[in-house]
Amino acid sequence: MATEEAHCQQIWLMTEHSFRFTHAITRRPPRSAVHGLRAEDVGNPDVNRMTEHHDAYVEALGHAGVEVVVLDALEEFPDSLFVEDTALCLREGAVVLRPGAPTRFRESLAMEPHLRDLYSDVRVLSGPGFIEGGDILTSDSEILVGKSARTNSEGIHELRDAVAGWGYALREVTTPPGVLHFKSDCSLLDGTTILSTPRLSSSGCFEDYTVIDVAEGEEPAANSIRVNDVVFMPRGFPVTTGRVRDAGFDVVELDNSECQKIDGGLSCLSLRFSPS
Fold first, then answer.
1. Cα–Cα distance for residue pair 190/151, rounded to 1 Å
2. What is the Cα–Cα distance from 166 to 17, expressed in whole angstroms?
3. Closest CA to 214 of 231, 230, 229, 196
4. Which of 12, 95, 168, 179 has the fewest beta carbons under 10 Å from its own?
C-alpha cells in the first residue's frame, strides 16, 4: 500500500508540478529592511508589522500542506527576505541565480548551502549575465522568463543551458516598461491559467493560456501564489480577488502592505518546491 501511495504522489507532482509543493524556504525580515531597494519612495516599512505579516505568511504555507524552513535574518542584506530572487527550484534540482542588483548578489551565495541540504543537484550560474527569480514563471509546459532591469538576455541564456538537461523548455518574454519584475505583473493560478495585468497580457505572451486580468488600479494583486489547493492573494484588492474566486479558486488573503513599500510581492517571500 505504501508503494502504491508513493506512486500516486509521484504522478500528482508530475502532472501539476507548477503549483504542487511539499517544501518552502523563507527568511525572516531584517531590521535593515527599511533600507530596501524601491522604485518609488512611499515611506519606509514598519519592520515590526512586516515581521507579523511574515509570520502569518509562514503559518499559511504550513496550513496549505508545505514544510517551511525559516532562515535567520541577514542584516547586511536589506532585501534578503525576498528569497525567491536567489534561485529557481524545480523537481530535478535547483539553480542558484545571479541577482541583477549588485547589492543582492551575495544573497544567492548565502542561499546555496540550504539548497544543497535539500537537493542532490544544485547548479550555480557563473555569469556574466544576471537573472532574478522574480522574472521567472514556471507553468506545467514551460518556463517563461521576462527580460527586465534585473534580468538580461545573457542570464536567460545561461539559465536555458542549466535547465535543458532536465527537459524544460524556456521562453524569453518582455517585462512591461517601468515594472520591476515579470511576476510583479502576473502569477500562475493553475497549470494553464494566468492572473495578469492588462498591460502584460496585451503583449500576447500568454496567448496559449487562459488569462484573468486584474482590475484597473489593483495591479499589485497580480503577484499572487498558488500553493497546492489555495491561491494566496495580497489583501486590499477586492475586485480582483472576486474575479479569482468567481473562476473557482479557493482564495486566502494575506496582508503584505509593508513589503509592498519596498517592491515585494507574496511570491518574493519564499522558494516553493517539491524535490524529487
1. 25
2. 14
3. 196
4. 12
17, 53, 54, 181: the catalytic one is: 181
pTM: 0.92
- How many angstroms separate the CA atoms of 84 and 76, rounded? 18
186 tagged catalytic: no
Half-sphere exposure of 145 (CA within 13 A, CB side): 27
Q: Which of 178, 239, 182 is nearest to 206 (CA)?
A: 182
Please tell me which residue in 89, 186, 259, 268 is annotated as part of the active site. Answer: 268
Catalytic residue list contains 89? no
Q: How many CA atoms lie within 13 A of 137 on its CB side?
A: 33
Judge contact between 36 and 80, C-beta under 8 A: no
Digit-coded pLDDT (tens) for 198-239: 999 999 999 999 999 999 999 999 999 999 999 999 999 999
The total of other beta-carbon atoms located within 10 Å of residue 74's CB is: 18
